[in-house]
Amino acid sequence: MHLSKKYSYALILAGLSGFSVAQATSGGGGKILVPGSGGADRLSLESADPGGASRIARMAGGCALPTIWSNIDLGVPADGNVDAISFPFPIPGSGTGNLIPYRGPALGGTLAWNQVCNAGYTVDRSSMGPMGTVVNTEYLGNGAASDTFLVKPFNGPSAPTPNRVIQNSDGGDCLTPKGTGAFETDIDSMTGYFGKVAAYPVFYSVDASTIMSLPLGDAGGPLVPVSPADILVAESPGVAYIAVTEAALGLIGGDDIDALSVCMDLEHAVYSLTAPSPSAQLTYPVIGQLGGAGLYSHYFGFPIVVPWATPQQMGLQAPVGVFGTFAFVPGDELNGVRVGDPRKPVCLQ
């Protein structure tokens, strides 16, 4: 499906179950300000609104978590979990947004040290990060799963050391930190939506535990079961359908999209997969395995899986060995991602 044919200049997002995150500033010991939207997983205290429904929220300042999109808004069952979200146009009507390079650094893309292409991301509770990195420091401290991180993924695909990552926000200021007796907040998705109310259309993905069906291709299409490797879209509150199928993405049964960032031209997107996904276990020459810590690129209309950034380029640990064997050492796992310039936000090439 060529998305830009239908949604030229349209606002686009993607959803999940939880609360909000994107880029952050911190004033001394004060509370963080995180303009953006995102979701926390079901074990996080912040994943439910007062009515008990799963939601996507915005951290508007201080520690408020106002709901932006509920599961109902996205056409997802109340007990479902949306685990990928993307909003290419953070400021509605501005005409600017995430402009993602077609060829990522994993394949020798044109990203250089002085370019303003950043990948903001979150990781799951099991992600330790390479030793000596801020991800590892946070994992050993009050937790990395409730934080956001930022990296410029510019080095070569076979770089022996991971790229430098900076901490973008510390969830321990406002969310449930590690070691409190409750489950540490796990930011399960993130995007750079700066609006205060819901906007449409919205692109998103649900996890494998979410059982639901949606129309295929448009709101009037045939009703079919949703795969965790499908990209879904909500055109308006409660009106959603399957925008790009698992097969159209070049993915297979068992794959599960875990993070998503759609380019503002609607021609392509980058995404991550859960570590157990069969497509995440492929090994590429020079690059190796991406696992759940690397990014893949999709060009709408072409059903192929293309590496975009390696785990090392994301400043994370890559898996080692064959998945499911005794010798397998799991790597880190991305939960949410947004590629772009945090200031514009446009990713210059």
Rg from Cα: 18 Å
Can you tell me the residue ranges where pLDDT is under 50 for at least 5 consecutive residues? 4-35, 342-349
Coarse shape: globular
| Main β sheet profile | 5 strands, antiparallel
Total of DSSP H or I helical runs spanning 4+ residues? 2
Strand elements, count? 21
What number of structural domains do the residues give? 1
Helix content: under 10%
Kindly report the average pLDDT value. 77
Q: What structural class do you assign from the helix and strand content? A: mainly beta
Order of secondary-structure elements: HEEEEEEHEEEEEEEEEEEEEEE
Quote the distance from N terminus to C terminus.
26 Å
Portion in strands? 25-35%
Oligomer: single chain
